[in-house]
């Protein structure tokens, strides 16, 4: 069986030289004017630890705790030093061994920078804001034969959706109520993140939309989503955020580059065209106009749709033991049996 887990090359697909101007880091990264930075000399260590102070762009940050580690990057929680109000951030530290790795990291930074004025404040309920982290700055340092790219962004609230789905369900739900609650969450997810993807799509394709790269928080009480049985209350509270553009591709060069780029992302959220690309290659994919079009333009749509389906089914099935002897019948039962 072929290993479908994302490889290093999948995380850093090469871009054409026409994209270099778009990816080039600015000499001095701009920052939101509402903040009051405290500048300092950059003495960043090779490894972050709790309490480490980091200078990126026009800001100094203090690392507080590690949020996640991968083979070539790690993300730390931190806070802005010198700000009038405490501002939590996520600090991403990426090791780039090749020029392609560097361009991939800079694309992620450039996308966040492009949309920094439209990114929704995590404490705001303005529905038209983009539900992505807000950009603070990024910097590139030479490290031996490679580069070190560091970027700072706002830390969006909540927990990964896949973690939320593993939590105990609200008590006392019957079958119909479980389905209503699952539908309410799936609808909220699409309504909230759909407009964000629409704004991003002229510039880039995310290519890795799944329940691990979507965070969910409680819009009413803050923190993790409160578990409640009422479908309308659940929908009112659910607040979704899209993170991690580390596998994104430039939408302007993707129509030419897709045959030469590795298939990326979690295969559980792939459309049929991604499997065709993975097992049969670009030549076979190009001969089927519909599959080729899907692969070039619909990866994010499919990823969001499958995540919404996962949210619906997992939410409903989590309380299956309380449905009673009759449970669910007909189309809903067939859907859940197929999902399982």
Number of helices: 11
Query: Structural class from helices and strands?
Result: alpha+beta
- Taking pLDDT < 50 over at least 5 consecutive residues as the criterion, the unreliable ranges are 1-42
Shape: globular
Distance between the termini: 22 Å
How many domains make up the coordinates? 2
Mean pLDDT across the residues is 85
What's the helix-strand series?
A: HHEEEEHEEEHHEEHEEHHHHH
Evaluate the radius of gyration. 21 Å
Helical residues, percent: 25-40%
Beta strand %: 15-25%
Describe this entry's structure for a reader:
- The protein is an alpha+beta fold and 340 residues long.
- It has 2 domains: 1-156, Phosphorylase Kinase, domain 1 (2-Layer Sandwich), CATH 3.30.200.20; 157-340, Transferase(Phosphotransferase), domain 1 (Orthogonal Bundle), CATH 1.10.510.
- Helices cover 35% and strands 19% of the residues.
- It contains 11 helices and 11 strands.
- The protein has helices at residues 8-11, 20-23, 99-114, 161-165, 175-200, 231-237, 254-257, 272-287, 289-297, 299-317, 330-339, and strands spanning 53-56, 59-69, 73-80, 88-96, 135-143, 146-154, 159-160, 204-205, 214-218, 238-242, 249-250.
- It has a 6-stranded antiparallel β-sheet, covered by helices on one side. Strands 7-9-10 form a 3-stranded antiparallel β-sheet. It has a two-stranded antiparallel sheet with strand order 8-11.
- It starts with 7 loop residues before the first helix and ends with a helix.
- Mean pLDDT is 85; it is low at 1-42.
């Amino acid at each position: 069986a072929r290993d479908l887990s994302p490889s290093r090359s999948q995380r850093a697909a090469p871009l054409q030289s026409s994209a270099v101007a778009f990816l080039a880091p600015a000499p001095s990264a701009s920052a939101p004017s509402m903040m009051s930075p405290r500048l300092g000399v950059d003495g960043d260590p090779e490894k972050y630890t709790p309490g480490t102070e980091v200078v990126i762009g026009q800001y100094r940050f203090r690392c507080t705790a590690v949020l996640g580690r991968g083979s070539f990057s790690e993300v730390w929680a931190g806070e802005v030093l010198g700000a009038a109000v405490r501002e939590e951030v996520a600090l991403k530290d990426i090791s780039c061994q090749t020029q392609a790795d560097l361009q991939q990291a800079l694309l992620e930074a450039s996308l966040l920078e492009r949309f920094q004025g439209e990114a929704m404040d995590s404490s705001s309920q303005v529905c038209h804001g983009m539900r992505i982290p807000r950009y603070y700055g990024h910097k590139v340092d030479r490290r031996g034969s490679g580069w070190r790219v560091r970027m700072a962004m706002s830390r969006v609230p909540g927990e990964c959706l896949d973690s939320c789905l593993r939590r105990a369900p609200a008590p006392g739900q019957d079958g119909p109520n479980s389905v209503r609650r699952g539908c309410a969450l799936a609808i909220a997810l699409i309504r909230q993140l759909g407009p964000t993807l629409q704004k991003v799509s002229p510039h880039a394709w995310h290519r890795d939309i799944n329940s691990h790269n979507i965070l969910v928080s409680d819009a009413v009480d803050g923190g993790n989503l409160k578990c409640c049985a009422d479908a309308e209350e659940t929908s009112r509270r659910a607040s979704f955020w899209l993170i991690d553009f580390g596998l994104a591709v430039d939408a302007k060069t993707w129509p030419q580059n897709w045959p030469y780029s590795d298939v990326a992302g979690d295969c559980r959220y792939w459309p049929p065209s991604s499997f065709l690309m993975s097992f049969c290659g670009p030549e076979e994919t190009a001969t089927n106009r519909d599959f080729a079009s899907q692969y070039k333009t619909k990866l994010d749509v499919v990823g969001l749709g499958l995540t919404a389906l996962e949210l619906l089914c997992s939410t409903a099935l989590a309380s299956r033991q309380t449905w009673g002897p009759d449970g669910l019948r007909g189309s809903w039962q067939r859907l859940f049996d197929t999902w399982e």
